[in-house]
Amino acid sequence: MIKCVILDDELLAISYLKLLCEQIEGVEVIKAFNDPKVFLKEIGKIDCNVCILDIEMPGMNGLQVAELISDSKKIIFTTAYKEYAAEAFDLNVVDYVRKPIKKERLIQAFEKAKELVQHSQKKSLIEWNTNIGKTVIFTDQIAYIKTSEIDSRDKDIILNDGTNIVLKNLNFKNLLEMLPDKDFAQVNKKEIIALSSIKVFSTNEIITTIPAESDGFLKLQIGETYRKRLSDLFGK
């Protein structure tokens, strides 16, 4: 199943795209946005695998948006301007669909996306020993991992939807070897964060997109040993 999110500054274009997607088997539109900044603020919390981005938008264009999310989402560009084609494919996107969009052309783009999504899913799912038995978890659904307070040999996982699962008898060294290096970072001796769950990054602290038990969002203290790796990831 292709779960897609649409970003286009024109509401009529969004309505038309949604109508086309509804006619294509195996495609579900999860949400649509007409503001790039709002899209970027929320996309990390949305369960989707494909983003359909308009290129020509005021304030921030689709190419700029794609640079920020292309590591985690498959991208299909839509635009009425052919001059963006070279730049689009430099970003290694799934496809570049010219407006006005035709259903047959959109189907072709989704077929390409489906193959890439299936390929990446095969590489990003892991079978774990957990408190509920052998469990297959897609790594892109993991938001946060910490050492269990009950038994330090175990690790507590929080998924993007808030689900809690306990990994049994697994140390951080082996755990990090199993996780995609580009998607996760150890923050201190007891915590690992998915990069997609980071809201604010500073020298000593990370504010996440994960709701805190008391109020606001979960905050993590950065250990000295892990500061350089995190700074390198964020170009600081």
State which percent range the strand residues make up.
25-35%
Strand elements, count: 15
Order of SSEs, N→C?
A: EHEHEHEHEHEEEEEHEEEEEH
Q: How many structural domains are formed by the residues?
A: 2
Output the structural class. alpha/beta
Mean pLDDT: 89
Major sheet size, sense and barrel closure: 5 strands, parallel
Name of the CATH class of the largest domain: Alpha Beta
Poorly predicted ranges: none
Q: Helical amount among residues, as a percent range?
A: 25-40%
CATH superfamily of the largest domain: Response regulator
Report how far the terminal alpha carbons are from each other.
37 Å
Strand order of the largest sheet: 2-1-3-4-5
Looking at the structure, what is the overall shape?
Answer: globular
Any idea what the CATH architecture of the largest domain is?
3-Layer(aba) Sandwich
Query: At the third CATH level, what is the topology name of the largest domain?
Result: Rossmann fold
Overall radius of gyration? 19 Å
Number of helices: 7
Please provide a written account of the structure:
This is DNA-binding response regulator, LytR/AlgR family. The two termini are 37 Å apart. The mean pLDDT is 89. This protein has helices at 11-22, 36-42, 62-69, 85-90, 103-124, 172-178, 224-233; strands at residues 2-7, 27-33, 50-54, 74-79, 95-98, 125-130, 133-138, 142-147, 155-159, 164-167, 184-188, 191-194, 198-201, 205-211, 217-221. The protein folds into 2 domains: 2-123, Response regulator (Rossmann fold), CATH 3.40.50; 131-233, LytTr DNA-binding domain (OB fold (Dihydrolipoamide Acetyltransferase, E2P), Beta Barrel). A 5-stranded parallel beta sheet has the order 2-1-3-4-5, sandwiched between helices. It contains 7 helices and 15 strands. The longest helix has 22 residues, at 103-124. With 236 residues, the chain is an alpha/beta fold.
